[in-house]
Design goal:
The protein has four helices and no strands. With 97 residues, it is mainly alpha-helical. It has a domain of 52 residues. This is XRN2-binding (XTBD) domain-containing protein.
Length: 97
């Protein structure tokens, strides 16, 4: 298996890396080849971006990625978001704290 740690973004935080790493490692066991590694890396970014940054992707693809996340056990962590997980929920724009 290739070194998965090379997939971590240079400025990626530990929270998102741990989520993505779990996702990739779990599914890589199903298809352990370099093509799958690249595909799973892309899937992990798509999943993370759709949940944390609210990026929009094809609904069927996101539904499939959500199922994959549930198999890994990271689905709930994604919905908690990084800010909630750290106890730092940012104020909405235009509101006072």
């Amino acid at each position: 298996m290739e070194n998965i740690y090379r997939l971590k973004g240079r400025t990626e935080n530990d929270w998102s890396w741990q989520i993505r790493k779990k996702f990739i490692l779990y599914h890589l066991q199903q298809q352990p080849d370099s093509k799958s590694l690249a595909m799973l890396n892309s899937y992990s970014w798509t999943l993370l971006n759709s949940k944390t940054l609210k990026c929009r992707y094809d609904q069927d693809q996101v539904a499939n990625l959500n199922r994959m996340a549930k198999h890994v056990g990271i689905y709930d962590q994604l919905h908690a978001s990084k800010f909630k997980a750290e106890g730092k929920v940012p104020a909405r724009a235009g509101t006072k704290r």
